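seq:
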Amino acid sequence: MTLAQIFEKIVGPEANVEFAAYDGSKAGPPGASVRIEVKSPIAVAYLAQSPGEMGLARAYIAGHLDVQGDMYTLLTEMAEITLNDMPVREKISVARSLGIKPLLMRVPPPPQEVRRSTMARLGSRHAKQRDAEAIHHHYDVSNRFYEWVLGPSMAYTCACFPEEGSSLEEAQFAKFDLVAKKLGLKPGMRLLDVGCGWGGMVMHAAKHYGVKGLGVTLSRQQAEWAQKAIAEAGLSELAEVRHLDYRDVTETGFDAVSSIGLTEHIGKDQLPGYFGFLYGKLKTGGRLLNHCITRPTGTEKTINKGGFINRYVFPDGELESVGHLIRAMEDTGFEIRHEENLREHYAKTLEKWCANLDDHWDEAVKEVGPGTARVWRLYMAGCIVGFERNKVQLHQVLGVKLDDDGEAGVPLRPSRDWP
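struct:
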């Protein structure tokens, strides 16, 4: 069995993908729009050590396996990347074909992979120091790199597309405006934005609603970029971003709290404390808008410790179902007033980010290195598939802190401005 035939078995014989290997073997339809090249025995060693998704990801990130063509097309063409369904006799045949050397060759994971031992030394999952390192790993890559990928909005969360043909910038503006309208922002109000990223929400609230906004982020690079952008926009009297753990915010009495893309980093066991903390920051009648990625049901694992996303992208990230999040909010004291799923919007957002990365590929590789650029190419394309196929969802949940008489202070019907 040739190397190309082995890889064809792993990714699925029905995939419309061309294969070529360093041993001269080829498989798949010649001239296919996507081509996989196995460039060295180290790629085979990675696969032997970790059959399936992780082995292929390591080989690609390390540069020993290459992909010519669109990564999203490749991932949609490929069958499940696993050897678990392969009959034992075929596994034995594959092992014999590989030979003993790749099976014995121990190659370290690419440096972009987060080691479990490194994280363990920083304390238990979601301890402050460990959370800070997890955020640093993903968000402190390079502000310039993020500018290329995210575009001028610097919004690294799901956009909301008003129309099919809306641009990324229009959709990100619409997302921030949707959050503002759901929170009922008005001039003179105070907003706390936890996990604020590069400050997009606090700047939007200040500029378009006259709201005094405080944003906090565990990424120093994000905070520095945001403070500079706020000053350049002339919004310093209303908007502020601090390099701070949300748990260390001392101010209270906010009219509204927005949490856009932070809950994924909180952890299932910490949710009661998280929502309780935010509840305590609000005035009576204040609103919380929680915007985050979720699992489609409560039956899946909240965290895949050995998966690609956890190892390379979001260390310690956990995804719960929207039902679990709503129950946690309710148990804290919030009354749920509105909920919606923006799953398809996140797939479209990721498509735009992938296109931006492709447009700036050479600059991105020069800025962050080929390994990190490849992590992003693989991760974002894979996430498009995940949202399209309902493996993950994106939900916005609006909660209200009722007054002593049970009054919510919200309109009888949601505003017609809400998409």
